[in-house]
Amino acid sequence: MPAGEIHRHGTGIFKRGLRYAPLTLTTLAALVPEEVEAEVAIQDEGVQPLDLEFEADLVAISAITGTALRAYQIADGLRARGRTVVLGGVHPTLLPEEAAAHADSVVVGYAEESWPELLRDFRAGILKRRYFRPTGRVIRGLPQARRDLLDRKRYATIQSIEATRGCPHRCDFCAVPAAWSGIYAHRPVEEVIAELETFERRHALFVDLSPVEDTSYAKSLYRAMIPLGLRWVGLATTRIAEDPELLKLAAESGCKGLLIGFESISQATLDETQKGFHSASAYGEVVHRLHDHGIGIQGCFVFGFDSDDASVFERTAEFVDRTKIDLPRYAVMTPFPGTGYFRRLEA
């Protein structure tokens, strides 16, 4: 797994790694069919330098847009050494033709079904140039991620987990609906609980993008988590603060921190980018309610929307200071391929 230049091992500002273990490659490792009889190893450039001199019959690389150029560089180098390379992830899904110039095969979309098929084809000598399965809606009965393949000490936690997948919203600037076609699905609560019970330490990190949009499911999950005595962090929309019962259950289940994409304190900007399901005027109350329940907030904001002016920086900083958001995070508006924002700029 490649990393963008500023996120590679040894180039950050912290002495200790703060990365959590991603689920993509560990999940694919768990899906290797027994008859393939493969020996599997994982390298993550975000936590350690890559060793590109390893012997391998097949190399799979997962890439987002921010790491795509690095992924192509690695793939080209490996192919020059005679390795067979497969590219997948968000960016190859959005731009498969571009990715195909750097790989022997490209996996488009979620890979739970196509990955075992690809491995069987590779073993039989009939590897196809592209694999695509337009599903991803069914995430039940999947094997647990091969966390044993990771070096625990290099991560803040390897106990990352997925309960829901995708997002029902279609924010204009977001790559998620563009890449995954608006898929929104959830795992059976009993399967999530069974996996949490295997964790050696009493904490978890949920990678779900929008876990509370189906409030009935979220409440069922949080109720089932209460007896586990976990401390957990994750992501959510502001909807979690709109339902008192949901917020109370989240706190009782052990929620200690949430990343929330506020994006902008301007309602006009939220409406313009199809994120009008967030109410900017309610943001202060959202922060207050979460803090009242002992939940810290990593608040994410974006600068550079069409409706922004020079005052946006000071106004946003004032809001962060006034509401005491625990960890603000700022980004520049980026046109990701396949998004509505990208298409508007192309027009």
Notes on the structure:
The protein has 347 residues and is α/β, with parallel strands linked by helices. The protein folds into 2 domains: 5-132, Cobalamin-binding domain (Rossmann fold), CATH 3.40.50; 159-346, TIM Barrel. The protein contains 13 helices and 12 strands. The chain has helices at 24-30, 68-80, 90-94, 96-100, 114-124, 175-180, 189-196, 215-225, 244-252, 267-272, 283-292, 312-323, 340-346; strands spanning 58-62, 84-88, 105-108, 130-132, 160-161, 164-166, 184-186, 203-206, 231-236, 255-263, 296-303, 327-332. The strands form 3 sheets. Strands 5-8-9-10-11-12 form a 6-stranded parallel β-sheet. Strands 1-2-3-4 form a 4-stranded parallel β-sheet, with helices on both faces. Strand 3, helix 5 and strand 4 form a beta-alpha-beta unit. Helix 7 (189-196) packs parallel to helix 8 and helix 8 (215-225) runs parallel beside helix 9. The radius of gyration is 21 Å and the shape is globular.
Question: What is the strand and helix layout of this fold?
Answer:
Elements lengths: L23 H7 L27 E5 L5 H13 L3 E5 L1 H5 L1 H5 L4 E4 L5 H11 L5 E3 L27 E2 L2 E3 L8 H6 L3 E3 L2 H8 L6 E4 L8 H11 L5 E6 L7 H9 L2 E9 L3 H6 L10 H10 L3 E8 L8 H12 L3 E6 L7 H7 L1
Parallel strand pairs: 1-2, 2-3, 3-4, 5-8, 8-9, 9-10, 10-11, 11-12
Antiparallel strand pairs: 6-7
Domain unit count: 2
Number of strands: 12
Question: Shape, please?
Answer: globular
State the name of the first-level CATH class of the largest domain.
Answer: Alpha Beta
What's the overall average pLDDT, rounded?
A: 93
Helicity level: 25-40%
Strand order of the largest sheet: 5-8-9-10-11-12
Instruction: Please report which band the strand proportion falls in: under 5%, 5-15%, 15-25%, 25-35%, 35-45% or over 45%.
Output: 15-25%
CATH topology of the largest domain: TIM Barrel
Proper CATH architecture of the largest domain: Alpha-Beta Barrel
